[in-house]
Specification:
This protein has helices at residues 3-10, 19-27, 45-61, 65-76, 105-112, 116-124, 140-151, 161-182, 187-217, and strands spanning 34-35, 41-42. The protein is mainly α. A two-stranded antiparallel sheet has the order 1-2. Helix 5 packs across helix 6 (116-124) and helix 5 crosses helix 7 (140-151).
Length: 221
């Protein structure tokens, strides 16, 4: 992807990011796009994940670039450290680190601070879907934590089915958008499909969030 494509993907979440910012992060060694014979930068999906990680750490945790660089080095080496599971996708070769957590029902419950029965209730309600070997992807922890918070307000696994159904419909919509790109054979087209999926997915999420906030606002006296 060209630097303009990277900006288009990142500016949804980080409106203030600029070309000069991306070049600065490159100068700091936090991302290393390849160069064409003509000297143009080309970014991979893994590069975009690294950039998102860096920008989130700066925005959400006010973390210095030097410390962010140390975290990235640890992730590249497959070492365990503190960032959320999603950040562990920022491997330099585009492949998820082997250190990425794959939760069982028991370990997922432990990490989320809930009982195993709570996790199994989410599975029975089809809110969570374990893989073929009965393990869960890293993002499952976020789902369980959110579900646990909602349960304190009397919202249990049965009520969360509608969230899963909405997410599935959203994923189907994104699939329709990226299908033409995914069906092409070139590596650049497949990379564009990944970037487009992330971009459209985030836009759909923003739309869903905005609609929920508007609906809830109508309930206020």
């Amino acid at each position: 992807m060209r630097i303009s494509d990277v900006l288009a993907a990142l500016q949804i979440e980080f409106p203030a990011v600029t070309t000069s910012k991306l070049r600065f992060l490159e100068e700091q060694g936090l991302v290393e796009p390849v160069r064409t014979p003509a000297g143009y930068r080309q970014y991979s999906p893994a590069d975009i994940e690294r950039l998102r990680y860096v920008l989130r750490q700066q925005r959400d945790r006010y973390m210095p670039l030097k410390v962010i660089g140390e975290h990235l080095a640890a992730l590249d080496a497959g070492e365990e450290d503190g960032p959320a599971p999603r950040a562990r996708l920022a491997a330099s070769d585009g492949v998820r680190s082997s250190a990425v957590a794959r939760w069982t029902a028991e370990t997922l419950a432990h990490e989320a601070g809930v009982t195993r029965d709570f996790v199994e209730d989410l599975v029975r309600a089809a809110v969570l879907r374990p893989g073929p070997r009965g393990v869960f992807e890293p993002w499952a922890r976020e789902v369980v934590v959110a579900a646990a918070a909602l349960s304190e307000h009397g919202i249990d696994a049965r009520h969360l089915r509608q969230f899963r159904a909405a997410a599935d419909r959203q994923a189907d919509l994104v699939e329709q958008v990226v299908a033409p790109w995914r069906g092409q054979r070139s590596a650049s087209s497949r990379a564009r499909a990944g970037t487009l999926a992330a971009e459209v997915g985030e836009l759909c999420t923003q739309m869903h969030t905005a609609l929920v906030r508007a609906a809830v606002a109508d309930l206020a006296p």
